[in-house]
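Technical appendix A lists one of the benchmark inputs used to test multi-chain prediction within the project. The record comprises three sequence entries:
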Amino acid sequence: MSSATPAVVELQGCSKWFQRAGQRVLALNAVTAQVAQGRVTGLLGPDGAGKTTLMRLAASLFHPDQGEVQVLGLNSRTQGAQIQQLIGYMPQRFGLYEELTVQENLDLYAALQGLEPSRQRARQQELLALTALGPFGARRAGQLSGGMKQKLGLACALLRAPALLLLDEPTVGVDPISRRELWQIILGLRHQGLSVLVSTAYLDEAERCDDLLLLHQGQLLEHAPHPVLTAPLQGCCFLVTQPGLSRRLLQSRLRQRTGVLDATIQAEGVRVVCREPQALPQPPEQWMPIAPRFEDAFVVRLYQAQHSGAASEATPKATPKAIPSAVPSVSPPRPEPLTQPIQATGPTFSPEPVIEVHDLIRRFGEFVAVKGISFTVLRGQIFGLLGANGAGKTTTFNMLCGLLSPTAGTLRVAGEQLGRAAAQARRNIGYVAQKFSLYGHLSVLQNLAFFSALYGLRGAHKTARIQWALDEFELTPFALANSQDLPLGFKQRLALACALMHQPLILFLDEPTSGVDPLARRDFWKRINQLADSGVTVMITTHFMEEAEYCDQLVLMSLGEILAQGTPQSVRALAARPDQAQPSMEEAFITLIQQHESPLRRAS
Amino acid sequence: MLARIWALIIKEFLALLKDKASRVVLIGPPFIQLLVFGYAATFDLNQIPYAVYNEDAGAVGRTLVAYFEGSPTFHQTVFISHESQIAPSIDNQKVLLVLHVAPHFTQNILQHQSGQIQVLIDGRNSNTATIALNDVSAIINQFNQDWMAQYGWAAPPALPEIRAWYNPNLISRWFIVPGIVALLTLVVTLLVTGLSVAREREMGTLDQLLVSPLRPLEILLGKALPGFIIGLLEAGLISTLVVVWFHVPFTGSLLALILGIILFLWAAIGLGLMISSLANTQQQGLLGVFLFLVPAVILSGFSTPIANMPEPVQWLTFLNPMRYFLVIVRGVFLEGAGLALLWPQYWPLALLAVASMSTAHWRFRTHMG
Amino acid sequence: MITAQRLHALVRKEFLQILRDPSAIAIAFVLPVFLLFLFGYGVSLDAHHVPVAVVVEQPTQETNEFVAGLSQSTYFQIHPFTQLTAARAALMRHEVDGVLWLRSDFTRALLQQRTAPFGILVNGVDANTARLLEGYLQGVWQTWLQQRATRSGQILHLPATLENRIWFNPALRSRNYLVPGLIAVIMTLIGALLTALVVAREWERGTMEALMATPVSLLELLLGKLIPYFLLGMGGMALSVCMALWLFAVPLEGSLGLLILASALFLLVALGMGLLISTVARNQFVAGQIAIIVTFLPAFILSGFIFDIGSMPEPIQFMTHIVAARYFVALLQTLFLAGNVPEVILTNAAALLLMALIFFGLTWRQSRKRLD
């Protein structure tokens, strides 16, 4: 591919197995790839794709079980020590000592990397300036925000001016503003001739890389520069709008149309990827051609991988003993079984308020996490709660579902105060925790049975609901497998199923799509839309800004206050400037937060 | 409500038994500890290494020394022919004691006078030394009585008749081994209950329970009952082993033992859940269990008598459920105790159980989330 | 292999962490003090004020003389009874631990120059205490015999009379041997727990991964952990020894230098054990659990600190050889109470050295500068 430039990392048929729960799990499957010199190479894929394994192979922290790894012309098996003299490596969670100050962390890594004491000061000053951490030299690393930790981790990896920089998911858990700043630094380094290998789960970051390595379930799907990947889709991508029709309805119609590969909500309409470079409009729809994105290419690639394999359809034909590769079942146009029995008769519910929040305040000692916010959620709405780290959205969310009691203000959920006393009021809500917390040692069936019993389901009704969950979420093949052994996408489904066993009026979802692959995310949103259509109110937090587009209403929080609320369109409109007439949700988010926080930042 | 608690109990058991690590914790340490404690933890001495320094050439001295050679409690390891050898043997712990038969021992006794025996003993371990000295004087007493009867010496004006109740041969294993029932039951119950809430908190499943219609009391019972059932089984199994394997007599009433186990378990579970409700992580839970367990075992009378402790420390032991349960277990096993005799132990246990369970419940109600 | 710059940086980092995270200091200093207090005061085998029922069915001058010996001793606390049945009931209710029974014909038998039997009854459940009580009561009897003989001008003739010479701890004060033993038990736990937890913490927080990707060598990594916690552990040890000397008034017969040397050697074993545990279990929770299970109970039961090793069954005696605390208990008890006994010190120190080498060898074999 990039044979013109010499490779700084070369993998030759590398495979790596791990021992997990008594089974050998294949983390990397015969991967052959090169990372070119002087370029930023992105390593992309969902959780569990093998990104970290590949990173550690390159850092000589793992040796491959099969194949060879050459880094900067050195063999990782025999010359690991030399490799580590030459590279900079930032692991996940940044590898910082939380008790040490910024300066002490820099001193430690400078000494470990053998930087001459005479050169240390100057180099550290340089990096502190680059990362804008200068004023925080005496602060302990544990007290830095996620974005600042990430930059400090980067500075530590850069101390001895490495020939190759390895960054393992540097943007995880970091808000969009910090992500943008990090990428500016990385691109600046590339200008100075540094080779960078960076792994990420955010597909939109692919656009910033020169080369891309696409991993999925341990296999290398693609290895190409970004334009090469999206080129075949040139002319196949459209933005479809239809005035007067809800975007969700439009999306579900388009998704079922033959020739449409993918349909997602974006801005004012629906983004469609077609099989052929030809629009398929049905009046009065308006089809407008747009440039393909990396995510389009990735989804199409995954979709092809799924179909080229022997597994023809979406149903995983697995036995519970050997958990198979997760083959998410989505998009293929097929009749959607409306098995949602909550409101089978369609949207006949009246839009009465279901959640009412008025002047809600929560203090933790001196610190005010939520500063008197108010909003109302109507029945059947998908309501999004957005904000940077530390904005107070988790605190708000926990108060809404009754895990935390408010310091002041009123809070009504389904017409009742959700205090500790109101155990009965909690019958109305379903809850999916972050990371899909389930009982890992219990099987799928046991988890379903447990949550049914918790909500007082019994007898034939319970049996029927469990059967419904197994069918609706296609969990039957895994019924007897322990939930901890499920692939992430299926864990997400099981968590959703458990929260729905008792047919709640309101569903609370805390970052329900983090880490899962784009196909599983599409599948998930399809289900959420169906639920909302049947009258279930959905309250959701997410850090994927493009997912905010799926919400009917959203609230953007910063420093415990509400910055903006309304439909996604109206929130985006708030951030419109002469230089960005049509801001994306992420741009809007960054603009609004910077506007809100800059006076405060200046003050401090 | 019952159906929900039942579901919680089933869930708790599945989680405990399907996880290899917790299965091992439940089964491995208790039995290893039972064996090690049962065999290693004994104050009884046997094969005490000793040396004889015999300066007496006569027959009586040899007769006396033969008494020691014939005793299974003593084992001669060093032969001493000169006084200078005594100190090194004791210093280097080759022998625990040296039996010194004075010169003219035989001559004195044949003349109806007293003969001198001197015992030089290593006092580094004072308990061992005390017990060994008792064993030595027992043998000398035996020799004296035999000699006096055989050669018509005047009998001493008074002679003790010694009897030990409940444990006639004073086997200290009979004391230690029933105590293990209490020790292991406490350890297992605390580990099961003390870490369980923190584990769910770490996994994130506690939030799932808290947003469900479960009341705090139901969650509490759902955590307590599995601990109770496991503790009951464990206590029953160990009690059986104590009788069958270690041949400790069981002389009292089974009912009294069962009542004691039940009350003790609830007190232990209450304490475990208190620790659990205070701990945010499993690590803190483990630390809490450890910091409670060590003093609880030391200040229970398990290995050393409470009566030997300083007064203020003795008051502390009244808060320790193991203190009461040890009396019950030993009473039932060895002393043939029944319900009536053990009443003074039952009510403090019940009080502790009620107090700890209500504190745990109060913590659950007010500090969750 | 080792550069001063890197090692210095690692050690400095570790000290900064210790200073700012109180948990290591708590383990090194607070935990030993807490445990030493608890055990030092809680574990005692010296019975005193043992409640004893004295049943005198017919009080006379003779019985009074006999009982007088009892009441003078601080070992006993006398509960007088006139009937055996009441005394037995008191024994059953645990109000007394033993009964001395002088029958109504005690005086008559004495006066008629017959041998007067008297009864000693003890609660044998706690066999150790019971045996001590028996011994004390017989001692009272023998003193009485002597006194009576002297008073009546007769010489009491027993064929063999026993004289005790107790070396090293003439008062047989149990604290003198329990406290040094406790130091060994506690330091086993502390040493292993310290290293096991801090290394596991590096794994858990992902800092170990960052360290390993730098040019730092494995030896530097291990030394970087060992040096700070060795110094910290020696601090904890010094604190414990001070408590032993001044709080519990244990005499120190041996030399301080040897005590420091022995402690250093032992601490190396304990730290080596901790390092090994943490290389096997890379998570603080599991490492902590293993450290407590494999160090505390074995050190408590199998080290000879309280239960005599020579009296254990053969297989268990054999097992005690792998308990490091066993050697340290022997060293401490000898150094504190007996003095510098070369043979004891050399053999036990050699055993500790061997164990330290084994633990470090195993750790070295187990750890690679890689994650898999």
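The CA atoms of residues 143 and 544 of chain A lie 25 Å apart. The first strand of chain A starts at residue 7 and ends at 20. Comparable benchmark entries are summarised in Table A2.
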